[in-house]
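Researcher: Here's the sequence for the chain we discussed earlier.
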Amino acid sequence: MNGVVFLLLFFLSVFSAIASEGVALMESGKLVAARNLFSEKLQKTPTDREAQFYFGRLSFSGIEAESSFQKIIQTLPHDSLTEASFFQLGQICYASGRYEQAVLFFHSLLATFPEGRLVEETRTFLALSEPASPVRPLVPLFFIQVGAFGVRANADKMAAAFQKNFSAVEVLEVRREQGSLYIVGIGAFESEEKARRFALEELKLGVSGFHIRKKGDI
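Model: Thanks. This is the structure I predict for it:
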């Protein structure tokens, strides 16, 4: 069971009406609609922790997701949402190669929730994040650009379509004098060749249907 499904089941019994509606949209693949629902809820009630959590889960930007989860762990009560947010922050840092930060979040989860439901998964990631771990992955450097739009809504729509089958999808904003450009990117690969192979074999994209970009160049 993947992390998203696990967390959805984890919180199913404590949903508010808005959260239930949003999760139903997520499960039916309507990710943009779900994100908009939680965004509207936060505009009306900025302190709604459930809406904050799921807005973070649906964010196409890692920075935006981190901000959402940080807001949750910094507010009371310390509950299942706090536990899940520590875990999400640890995973985000781990995936981007920030292992020291990942270790801090995973240790915080274990210290605050020693009997929590995510303890087993947290210990697994913690072992991989520790400095002595021989299996630390290389920091991913490349991603697959599958689209570029002048309108954010169009980029979000394409990203949502890919997210039905692939979890590592994000929308990156490139600011230019003539206006922002929104790039839809998939994956995080340690080499250009691996990214290209994934685009051709897994995404089934034609040779002219994508570009391989280096993270940090955007």
